[in-house]
Design goal:
Layout: H1 3-10, E1 18-23, E2 26-30, H2 36-46, E3 50-54, E4 60-65, H3 81-84, H4 87-186, H5 196-209
Antiparallel strand pairs: 1-2, 1-3, 3-4
Length: about 210
């Protein structure tokens, strides 16, 4: 069986998780790689009699026999007896068979290379998308950190302003209290002079002595 047909069989849905091949009665497990084309080439090179595809739960998805006639590369067409007896017709038919085999091999090889190129392009695109997702996640984290820092700085400024207002209010109340206490000790007038009653009492006492 050619690798292109085997690759198409492997890519059928659902895609397998585990592949087991039977070679001369021995069962081997083939590791799945990133390239289905390489996997198909590996299986074809082993020349197995049977290929089995299993899913993640070890359930058989499908099986393919490679030792029957349908699985082989197309054989040369049988010549009718009339043509086989003619050497010129046999020579022309043999040349046509060789040309057919050459085209078949080149087409299979070109298709395999094209598939490999597409798979590499897909892997490169996946890598670019993963790097882009990581860059976006890193940018979002940096933005979130900057926002959190800005909020923390704003809260710190508000707390500092509140503490300064509290200290200013305490200082003003202390000044007012000390001023009022001084006024009470001075006799009730703001300039510190005695009240009228106190002056009259002092005058009467001086007049009595004279």
């Amino acid at each position: 069986m050619n690798t292109s047909k085997l690759r198409g069989w492997l890519l059928q849905l659902p895609k397998p998780t585990v592949l087991r091949v039977t070679v001369d009665g021995d069962v081997d497990e083939v590791k799945l790689g990133k390239s289905w084309q390489k996997t198909a080439e590996t299986i074809a090179a082993m020349q197995p009699e049977l290929v089995q595809a299993f899913d993640g739960d070890n359930k058989l998805l499908r099986a393919l026999r490679l030792d029957d006639v349908d699985a082989r590369r197309s054989d040369a067409a049988e010549l009718p007896l009339v043509i086989a007896q003619d050497p010129h017709a046999a020579m022309l038919t043999h040349f046509a068979n060789l040309l057919h085999r050459a085209y078949e091999h080149s087409t299979e090889l070109a298709f395999g290379k094209m598939v490999e190129l597409v798979e590499r392009m897909n892997d490169r695109s996946d890598g670019i998308e993963q790097r882009l997702e990581r860059s976006e996640a890193r940018a979002r984290r940096l933005q979130d950190d900057a926002i959190e820092d800005a909020y923390a700085h704003a809260e710190e400024l508000v707390a500092n302003a509140a503490s300064q207002e509290g200290e200013q209010g305490t200082l003003e109340s202390m000044l007012v209290n000390s001023f009022m206490a001084g006024q009470r000790s001075a006799g009730g007038k703001p300039n510190g002079k005695p009240a009228n009653g106190a002056a009259a009492a002092n005058g009467a006492s001086n007049g009595g002595k004279s």
